[in-house]
Predict the structure.
Amino acid sequence: MRVAVVGLGKIGLPLAAQYAVKGASVIGCDINPEVAGAVNAGACPIGGEPGLPEAVAQAHAAGRLRATTDTPAAAAESNVVVVIVRVGIDEANHTDLSNLDAATKAIARGLRPDTLVILESTVPVGVTRSHFGRRLAEGSGLSLTDFRLAYSPERVSSGTMFRDLATYPKVVGGIDAASGEAARAFYEQVLDAEVLLVADAETAEFAKLAESIYRDVNIALANELAIAAEALGVSYKAAAAASNSQPYSHLHAPGLGVGGHCIPVYPYFLIEASGQPIVSLSRQINDSMAAYAVDKLAAAFDGNLAGRRVLILGLAYRGGVKEATLSSALLVADALRQRGARPLIHDPLFTATEIESYGLEAADLPPSEPVDAVILQALHPEYKDLDLSALKGCRVFLDGRGAMDHARVQAAGMRYIGIGVG
């Protein structure tokens, strides 16, 4: 079986390695020649993914994994083409299919009859059939019945790719019964997880949006309840733990917002299509939490943050991963600037140059100069046993992830502020 994986990013390369380790002959396709060159040398161009360097090296050594920038040629020699390129939103929160369209054009130039094409990128409902499939047919001169077309959403997370591939059921839906069955048979060969065949591509597309929106809405609910708990003098964390002792209650943790390339983005695919109010409101709530937290911090300084040096711990959108896409750190820094404060950023996974590329000021830990306040934004392992005594001059510690011990913070001479702390 010959498989082309189009897009060798943080998800695409692990997929390519997984398929190759399972015995497929895999050609990875990427527009970046440096990525292709690294893979062809048996090296892994992506860091921070446990097991990936070993899988790439093993697959390359076995002669089952190579890479190219020539996507049409790769498609032409493959039985299966798996597409995993970034689909995001523009500044107006409208779906941006430009990456997918570019990949589609290249694939179509090499597409042969009877090839199985599977789209894994998260997309709005209907895109696989009406947009992706139609453009493949137009660009190749084939009809939709000449090749197999299915949708199977990626469901993995950075840092746990191979675990997720092995344990999360693989949802699959075809544009017709034959396509769905072909995709199921493919995944049963290259994955250990259960393959869940649903009615059609649209059902699979909707399922991925629904699971992402479920998380966003429930985080928004947690944030709203945390704000209410504060107003009523109640600890949200304690109350939520009690509530969750009931099997049907699954209250999430509140925080500074939601980041990454998934949860803050995919709800807009449904908002654009149907305008569900709870989905829109949840996005607004979660994006407002950074400013809410900064307002709480300002209150600790009598409402005035002008000139205050505030150290933000974590550029990453979550702990333990080197990924800053739509990170709450960016919203927090912006809110601090709007109040006249000077935000500084530390993250053990990013270099100072990388931090500065986001328009932020990098800082050491402990900082070289005193800071007035610290905000825990991403719970990296390095922050769990933070030496608070090294934070010279710090008067306030804002725990944006509910992870620090109140008493330890107070014993270090700082005021503790949390989200949902009454």
